[in-house]
Amino acid sequence: MKIIAYETRQDEEDYFVEVGERLGVEIIYTKEALNEETIELSKGCNGVTILGHSKINSAILDKLKEFHINYISTRTIGYNHIDIDYAKEVGVKVCNSGYEPNGVADFTIMLMLMSIRHYKQAMFRGNVNDYSLAGLRGREMKDLTVGVLGSGRIGSAVIENLQGFGCKVLVYDAFPNDKVREKAIYVDLDTLYAESDVITLHTPLLKDTYHMIDKKSIDKMKDGVVLINCARGELMDVEDVIEGIETEKIGALGLDVIENEEGIYHQDRRSDILTNRQMAYLRQFPNVTMTQHMAFYTDAAVKSMVNCGIESLYSLFTEGTTKYEIK
Ligand code: NAD
């Protein structure tokens, strides 16, 4: 079997070599994303593995079919960058990655703590020998109600992590989970918005979750609400979120993701003129902490993303099935 791995990073290399040797699979590598210019590289391969910057639309899927490539794995959990419906239509099987949710869940708690303890400001002040306390008085987790939107793998792990803090935990999901029910209280969405001091998003990006955090939903929230997003940028309407910060309706934001992050995040753009005004404007607020879509990025997750990406293509090729197939 021959696989092409797109968007490879140096820290993935050892894991690719190990899994390739173990399964007897030939792997070719490129740092580039899979797009209309780089698709020729996949000729002669049986499967492709990608990360989130490869936009798999109908034109790409048609071309893959033309090259007799029937299997794609994304080494990410989210798969909103792939036209799944069209892939099904043309018979390309797609699978995602199944790495453990702990890395993202831990990062979510870190952003919550940084937000409620004003750590961004404290760190900036320390860098210029300003050790004053004014404006840095925080809140304690035990006094807060945390609302978790989505109780899937990551949302459940966040709820597990929250157990030690003594906070009240509310959760909303269309598909409640009995294990989660032992640790958090399922409520309807409006109750979660109205009663939570901190709201953290863990739903996938779907048609009905696109811009779910907008002026209408923000208006339903408590004054000074803290919002955390370690899921997908498109869950939030950035203009409405900016208005929420300006009017102080939103007390703090912790964002690992932001709409239109592609082409900026995961790259060194220090010397470039960046044109994403919303990102630049949001970043300058003292109560907005932004990271470069790195919540997933742990040693355990990278290993598992690579293994999963190759092993699932191998299973599809040899057995026609994998538990990670998106159906
Ligand atoms: P999951 O599929 O296990 O859980 C998602 C949950 O959201 C499900 O329980 C589902 O019922 C629920 N849901 C769907 N629509 C909803 C809605 N409208 N309202 C409330 N709940 C809804 O997924 P997961 O593994 O927990 O991952 C969640 C998301 O996190 C991924 O889709 C991905 O976009 C994002 N993610 C981000 C990073 C990062 O590095 N920042 C890493 C991994 C995943």
What structural category do the secondary elements indicate?
alpha/beta
Ranges where pLDDT stays below 50 over 5 or more residues in a row are none
- The total number of structural domains is 2
Measured as a percent range, the helix fraction is 25-40%
So, the CATH homologous superfamily of the largest domain? NAD(P)-binding Rossmann-like Domain
| CATH architecture label of the largest domain | 3-Layer(aba) Sandwich
The average pLDDT is 97
* CATH fold type of the largest domain: Rossmann fold
**Name of the CATH first level of the largest domain:** Alpha Beta
User: Which ligands are bound?
Assistant: nicotinamide-adenine-dinucleotide
The spatial strand order of the largest sheet comes to 8-7-6-9-10-11-12
Radius of gyration: 21 Å
Largest β sheet strand count, sense and barrel closure? 7 strands, parallel
**Extended strand count:** 12
